[in-house]
Amino acid sequence: MKIRIDDIEVEIEAGQTVLDAARLAGKEIPTLCNGKGLEHYSSCMVCLVRDLKRNSFIPSCSALVQEDMEIDASGDEVIRLRKKAVTLLLSEHRAECEGQCRVVCPMGYNIPLMNRLLSAGLTDEARELILAETGGEELNCFKCKGFCENACRRKKIDIPVSIRNIRIFLFNLFPVDKGIRTSSKYHKPVDLKRRFSSRIGMLDESEQREWLKECDEDEKRHRNITNLKDAVEESGSCMRCDCRAADNCRLRELAEHFDLKDPKGKFINLPISKKINGKTGLIFENAKCIKCGLCVRLSGDKKEEPSLCFVNRGFVSVISEPLFEDFENILPTMTDSCIEICPTGALGHKGSITGK
Fold it and tell me: Crossing angle, helix 163-172 and helix 111-119, to 10 degrees?
């Protein structure tokens, strides 16, 4: 059959979706809850288009094509509603894209990544990152007042991570000729002031302590960093309050694409919690979940192992392990697949450096 999308005629077989037709026409329609090979769900409504003949708005990912359809996929009203859909998702997204230590740093140093590299034993890579960030110049930490430590969320529980001293120690670890720019595959310069960043809102003490779950259980604290062992151990006290998917988040990409600001008021569905599967390393942060259902549909097809599912109804529905199952038993073989398909940082892997 033939349909028209933004005045482009497309020939397509019956049973296909409007989204399929749009892609044939070379039209890019954003999606969040759509997954290749998975049953259509239509939860995010980011892919809305307008059926001109019926004067109605439909989700392109699940609406099937009909003969002589005329679709508006890029009009002003369509874009306005897509922006509204993303804004609604952000209103329930209690998460921070960037750690506060990095946000307040005058140089925008990627402090959370440095801590992740050190904790993973990648000490050379952590130092290369620091040198690449300086561009061969002097490290700003020598003259900085330590804004990063003042903003460190660990400070509200006990004492801040000794960020400044870690960076200075690693910078001085081996001599480097002035003016030589050291490269690092982990160094990705970004303008944090122009980049979209979600905010988490107010936190109570119990929510703050949820982040401690990812810290080293037998952590040893060091204010003064005198050797590499001290630096590695102190980095383990970082609570990972940034998002491991900061550079790999579809929701953030759409917010930037639509030039959106993070909503001031956040809808609190559940208290912030962090579940960690000790067997697979799977981490689930409910506050970052937009309930797209991709992980549920992907893992639900594999009946022989416990999978993620929806619990509760309506606005209070959330994704969780089944009521009579322990999170430790969830997704023994499908952890990586579910992490990969998640459009935000809600699902991740403990110890991951970049991505999720």
Answer: 70
What's the domain range around 144?
94-268
220: Cα separation from own chain's centroid:
29
Residue 109 burial (CB count, 10 A): 22
Q: How does pLDDT run across 74-103, given as a tens digit for each residue?
A: 999 999 999 999 999 999 899 899 999 999
Residue type, 320: S
- Show which of 58, 91, 124 is a domain's final residue: 91
Q: Are residues 293 and 338 in contact, defined by beta-carbon separation less than 8 angstroms? A: no
Residues with pLDDT less than 70, the chain: 175-181, 301-303, 354-356
CA angle 141, 146, 149 (to 5 degrees): 125
Q: What is the pTM of this model?
A: 0.91
Residues 292 and 331 in one domain: yes
